[in-house]
C-alpha cells in the first residue's frame, strides 16, 4: 500500500508503543518510509521485524524491549530513544490488550492490570515526552483509542473503559500542552483485523455483523490506519488538537 508523503516528517524522532506487531508494526513501517528515526517498545521479541524493516525500507528502527506496565522501564526506553535519535517529537501510544472478560468473576487485580496496559502508559509517556517537545518548539502525540466504547459492545468492559479514558486524556492534555505547540489527538480505529484478532476473536458471525454495520464493505487492515496517523503527526494537521479521528469504514457516525 502506497502512502502519501509528508515531507516535514523526514528526520523526526518518533516513539511508538507496541510498534513491532499488529497495528504497531504497520505504524513503524509507515514512519520509516517517511524517513523518520523510529524507536519502538514492546514486550515480545522483535529482532526479526527490525531486520525485515531495515531491508524493506533502508531505514532501521530501534527496538527497545520493554513491558509498558513498568513505568520506570518505559521512561528509560524513552531516554534511550532520545539519546539515539534526538528529543522525541512524535509520540504514538498504540499498545493495548483487548482481553475479553465477564462481569461477575473479574477481580480488582485483573481490572488494574488491564488499565496498566490500556490507559496508564499513555499519561506517563506524554509526561516524559513533553519537556523535549517543548524544548524542540512543539510536537505531536497520537493516542490510539477505539470505537469500541462508542458502539456499546459487551465482553471487554475494562478495555472499553480505558479507551473512553484515552479520549478524555487526549482532550485534557490538548488544552494543557497547546500553549507549548504540542498537539494531542486521538485516533479511533474500527475493528482492524490483525493476526491476533483473526486468531482469537474473529468468528464468521462477528465478521458478518461488522460488515453489515460498515458503510464501506471491506474489512479494515493495519495499513488502513497508517495514513491517518501520519497526517496527525505531520504539519498537515498543525491546527488540529484535542480531536478524535475515526477510521472505521463508516460505523459509528451512521448508526
UniProtKB/TrEMBL annotation:
Keyword Oxidoreductase: yes
PROSITE patterns: ADH_SHORT (PS00061)
Residues annotated as domain Ketoreductase: 12-191
InterPro entries: KR_dom, NAD(P)-bd_dom_sf, Sc_DH/Rdtase_CS, SDR_fam
Molecular function as annotated in GO: oxidoreductase activity, acting on the CH-OH group of donors, NAD or NADP as acceptor
Keywords, sorted A to Z: Oxidoreductase
Source taxon at top rank: Bacteria
UniProt record similarity statement: Belongs to the short-chain dehydrogenases/reductases (SDR) family.
Protein name: SDR family oxidoreductase
Source organism of the structure: Algicella marina
